[in-house]
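A quick word before the example. In earlier lectures we treated sequence and structure as two separate objects. From today on, think of them as two lines of the same record. Here is Phage portal protein written that way.
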Amino acid sequence: MFDFLKRSVDGPHEVKASATGPVVAAMSGAGRVAWSPRDTVSLTRVGFTGNPVGFRVVKLIAEAASALPVVVQSATQRFNTHPLLSVIERPNSAQGRAELFEALYAQLLLSGNGYLEAVGEGAVRELHVLRSDRMSLVPGADGWPVAYEYAVGGRTHRFAVTDGATPICHIKSFHPSDDHYGLSPIVAAATAIDVHNSASRWSKSLLDNAARPSGAIVYKGADGQAAMSSDQYDRLLSEMESHHQGARNAGRPMLLEGGLDWKPMGFSPSDMEFQKTKDAAARDIAVAFGVPPMLLGLNGDATYANYQEANRAFYRLTVLPLVSKVTSSVGHWLSEMTGDAVTLKPDLDQVPALAAERDAQWARVAEAKFLTPDEKRRMLGLPPLADGAPFDAQEV
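And the structure line, produced from the sequence above:
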């Protein structure tokens, strides 16, 4: 029944190669692993697991993108049921469609590369997302990958690329200076992430010191001498550390002996501006990932007139381009593996944030009297009707 899921072996495979491939291969070294020029693990630890803004923007994009329904469509019809659609809806025993694509989008955002593995002999039965920091690409003499190596705990598994077919779908972001790996937004936001983390540590240190700036203890001896003995200095320092520092000692009164005077110090203008610096760094992180700062609740940001406008811009400018790129790559990869000419695309009719724009587009197209029904359907991203049959009845 599902013979079209089997890879076609009839006839020779057409060989395609760019004229610049051998030059790229000479630079990277044919047959050797092309290592990524960045430390994905460190960037993920500092910018995602160690930064609340980076964590939120990645989760926001990945969850919004993975929640969009996808459709399988050929040149003539859209399928309500399809073997590939069944695999995508339940890619493996541990994940559903949303979990699989959330992991794939998160890997792409954090490392600039996403890797999807297809499992099955002669047919695609399962899909798995592989960690980007464990995957390495091996280029061939023509510059195109001949294998992918997945290393875990000193052991390596090699995925061979034969006759242009591969069990690995490599999706990468644009990188202006790397031929094999993509560029992550977290790299562009690295400086802002460091500033934000430093500001957070400064705030934590301030809280540890009773949430007030340090002061000065002035000593004036009875004889006018402004110097303490070593024993007096050590005793005073010990009492300050044990009784007056830290959050648990906040508000405790200070008992000073004769000759000691406490001179509190107020916040300097640079201290007062530190929180603004932190907010500016948070906005830079959001901008690098394409998330309107208003959606993160940042103070002082009023770029958009209201929350709905910011949400529409988020879907239109960030989520939909990402989903369209990933689904197109995955659909093309699965079509090559199965030999079935179908495309994978997001179902824009199911995006609540774009419902108003979609309704207006449908109304404009429906009122265009000079267009045929098939032309109207093509403008809306739908395949033409076959023999006048109702569109909903077309199933496989």
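Notice the following. The first helix runs from residue 21 to 28. We will return to this example when we discuss secondary structure assignment.
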